[in-house]
Amino acid sequence: MIMQKSGLKISRREILKAGAGLAAAATLGAPSIVRAQSKTITVANSGGALEAAFKAAYFDTFEQKTGIKVISAPYLDSAKLKAMVDAKSVDIDVSDLDAAEAAPAAGLGLLEEIDYKIVPTKGLQDGSANPYWTNIYIAASVIAWNVDAAKSMAIPKNWREFFDPKMKGQRTLWKSANQTLELAALGSGVDPKKLYPIDLDAAFKALDGIRSNISWFESGAQAAQLVSDNQVDFGMVWNGRIQPLKAKGAPVDYTFNNALFTYGDLCVPKGVRDKALSMEFVAHCVDPKNQAIFAENIA
User: Fold this and answer.
1) Which of 149, 145, 148, 116 is nearest to 133 (CA)?
2) Bridge pairing between strands 94-98 and 252-267
């Protein structure tokens, strides 16, 4: 659903609840992915440019190597992951999870341990080989804007300006505690080197200051479309979502200045149908040859 310029009112309680979906996940139905009759593996991911890069680097090459078809599935957030595991109906074999969601999911016992006898660690950056996930890429939350809107108004160059109540314009932000609270804290003037633990009071004060000018998004595609359609003037968008629109000639632009970089991790849900196959796919993804293909295809 595209949100209009009037914006969606959201409280401190609601944004924290959106970021803590694990607690209420038992009430959600587990996602249903229809499997092919032949052997397949289903991989949840964030979609957009990332999905296209995954397909070129990992999905197609894995099928060529093994004959096993890779089915792409929508992003599996922590709430849906918990519902799926609790229901013992695990139909996602590997999931691309944001680092901020992978850690609590592991703590709740929702993830299988990564088998590093199968998944090689040679060449991985320090910290990439966690017991419950393997980091395979870095994404950025950037400030993006509609270029037509920019002709008649100032566009924020950093998060301090983004959260300045004097800065005119409708903004979009993710309806999630994840990343949104970090950005709000930065917008309040917190030193990036002292961002954690997050100063929640400062973050919510910054959000309150621009509340009437926020249109909340719930997916990466929605965020990019809000900016492209000028339903908002500027906003936080993931680089892999806004770059493809810019490349196609949409009236959008963005900057990496003051961007918030986050890790994307491959995880294996607890109770997966074929753990060895899932580990084989993760191993395939960290292969330097396939990582190089990914780098060539990602925005």
Assistant:
1) 116
2) antiparallel
